[in-house]
Each structure stands twice: as structure tokens, then as C-alpha cells.
Amino acid sequence: MLLSSYRLGNLALPNRLVMAPMTRARAVDGKPTEAMATYYAQRATAGLIVTEGVHPNAVGQAGPFMPGLHTDGQVEAWRGVTGAVHANGGRIFAQLMHGGRIGHVEVAGHHPVGPSAIAAVTEVFTPSGVQSAPVPRALSAAEVTEQVQAFGDAARKAVEAGFDGVELHGANGYLIQQFLSSSANERTDGYGGSIAGRVRFAVEAVEAAVDAIGADRVGIRLSPGGEIQSIVEEDVPALYGELLKALPDIAYVHVMATADDEVLMGLRKAWPTAFIFNPGGQIGPHESTREQGERWLANGADLISYGRAYLANPDLVERFRLDLPLVSTDRETWFQTPHGYIDYPSYQH
Known about the structure:
Layout: E1 6-8, E2 11-13, E3 17-19, H1 34-42, E4 48-54, H2 72-87, E5 92-96, H3 105-108, E6 113-114, E7 123-126, E8 129-132, E9 137-138, H4 141-160, E10 165-170, H5 175-180, H6 195-213, E11 218-222, H7 236-246, E12 252-256, H8 261-270, E13 274-278, H9 290-298, E14 303-306, H10 308-311, H11 316-322
């Protein structure tokens, strides 16, 4: 079933494998490189590729060497990536990731912003090394609207750059999840407090992207109950149930295994369009298996996303098809290094 075809919006996917978004930190001056085009093109047999997180505006950049999608130069550079993927027969969405309070003034010259002036209890990467996350500047109501619109503007630029669609990053402790979180969001206006208030930013950001490029080209990634980067969420089933009800019927939701099966199954049943499931949950030491993917397809997921398994196995679809062994990676090569990126070969028979 994992290797069967699937219709996602206007896209015909040849299989149900999705290459999950993974930070690789190899952009130069916010622009993707030729090596990045090669990296994604090597993995074009995936049913769908979702890129690493791409900041939708300058203040949204979470770390160094991350690509953006808010200048004409970035759009032009991304055309090299999307063109290479399409030439190899693939389909690719850009993941729009606003870091919010996860960032540093040294990264892009902007002090991080967030729903409230509450620092994440975590460390962030900067050009001068790892530092404690700073206290963000709380967004005014008018500024919240500006950040919402940034997602719509970036979605429009993504299509200009040749992407098939966009995925909004609502997981892993970044800006959208910061609004959902009771630990990062202590606002008393319409963007905080009640569940309806805390889901509002996510819904409006998705609506901005939909208005820009159409619902069939928009998805969102979620990590219900995920605690990465010191996020705390209260009443997860109610919070995410309300969010899914409030969202327009976009192409898909992409859900990580960060809650128990009962909660995740409830979200699957509540969502009317495609449901992408990532069985790996938050960052860990092991690649997800084909068996995990098949299990979740049997449980009602439509597509399965794989992250770490795609790092060293550009031909992951073929390895699953022929039951070939997977290659593991050295975590030291995940970011920035010249090796451990485009030098993993397909299986040699």
C-alpha cells in the first residue's frame, strides 16, 4: 500500500512516501545552492518532497545558513531547485517556517518576535556559536497581522519559484505552535487565552496562503502535544480538534507522532482531506521503518513522511520496493558539512 499511487489535490503521486522537511543548513545568503538542487533532485522518486524550513520574512529566520522565500533573488535561486526536481519527475512543496522566538539578532539582524515576551528554554544556533534563546519581543496586534500576511506573500513567491505548493510549519516550537502553546502565549487579546484565541494565528496564516495560491496547494504540519523547544500545550485533544475544525479544507495536514495513538486517531477521523503521518515523532536516533508506515496507512493515514531515512537513502522508494537495507547517517553531517549531503549513492546491486 505504501507504494500505491495517491491523488493529492491536483497532483498525481506515484507512491505514498513523503520526504519530510529537514533542516540541512547549507544555504548561502538565504539562497539555495546548486548542491541543494542536486540533493532534492536525487530524492525526486518520493511521492512528494517537502523542503527544509524556509523563512517567509527576514525576522522569521531561525538560524544561520537557512534559505528564505521573500526576495526576488531567493525566488530565482529556488527555480533551480524546483526545476531539477521536476526534471527528475518529482513534486515539491516549500515548507514555510517562521522561527518566532527561536532565533537571534546575530542571525539576520532582527530581534526575535513571539506572541509574548517569554523566552524558550533552549539553545539557538548563531554565527558565533550556540547561545541561549533570547526573550522575544511580543508582537502588537497590528504586527501579528503582518506576520500572518508574510505566509501569504511567501506562498505566492513559492509558486513563482516553481513549487507545487507550500506547507506551513505549525510544529516543533516555531511561531505557529508558539501561538497554540499555553507556555509561550500569554496574550489577553483575540490571539490568546481561550482555545479559539490560541488557534486563531494558525488559521489566519493558512487562510492567507490559501487566498494567495488556492487551498489545494496548501498544507500544514503539526506536532500535537510536542514539547520540543520548551513548548507546553494544554488539553491537546480539544486544542487540535478545534484547530482542525477551524481550518479551511486544505490539501493536507501533516501530523507528527507526538501524542498517543488515541489522540492521533481522533485527529485523523476529524480531518476531511489528506492526512500525512510522520511515525518518527520528534528528533531521535533511528530511521522510521516501512512497517511503521504500513501500520499507519492501515490506521487511516493517506501518506507517510520519512525524514532521517531520506538523508542517506535517496532511493528510499526503491529500497522499500525491493526490501533493500537502509543506510544510516552520522549526526555530525546533518548540518553544513560538505560531506554527508549529496554523496550518498543509490543502492548498488
